[in-house]
Design a protein that fits this description.
145 residues; mainly alpha; 7 helices; 76% helix
Length: 145
């Protein structure tokens, strides 16, 4: 925050202030300190909101506002773990399905929820993060095989 203020980077400073305010509001709402996972969840929510805003501004023919939201996403994502690539997600899905197959019968579409939880946990344990929608699509495709 201080570095962006000294550099007179107004966009970065305003975005960091917004992030700090959101985290503080979440602490007040919880009435206690936030865990690292809760902080990450708050940042993820902020990024999702920005993506929705970009879509709305694009449909409303407001490119300048869409660019501003995109710049905010870049600043917020700098403080988040890296995003897992599609290949890494596929590897984790295959590993989870192999583990579940080894412990019993091969999971089908009905076990999608348990597979999703296991895959997300495995991805987070590697220090990465993944978009739930993308993971869901890959898990569906693998379970349909």
């Amino acid at each position: 925050m201080v570095a962006s203020m000294k550099a007179r980077d107004a966009e970065r400073t305003s975005t960091l202030r917004m992030v700090m305010t959101a985290l503080k509001n979440k602490e007040i709402e919880k009435r206690g300190e936030l865990s690292e996972a809760e902080e990450l969840q708050t940042l993820t929510t902020m990024v999702k909101q920005r993506h929705e805003s970009i879509e709305a501004f694009t449909r409303g023919d407001r490119p300048l506002l869409a660019e501003k939201e995109a710049a905010e996403i870049k600043v917020i994502e700098a403080y988040m773990p890296k995003v897992a690539g599609e290949e890494q997600i596929r590897e984790n899905v295959a590993a989870v399905i192999a583990e579940l197959t080894a412990s019993g019968s091969r999971p089908g579409p009905r076990e999608m929820g348990s597979v999703m939880k296991a895959v997300q946990a495995k991805i987070q344990s590697t220090g990465l993060r993944a978009d739930g929608r993308q993971v869901s699509e890959i898990v569906k495709a693998e379970l349909a095989k």
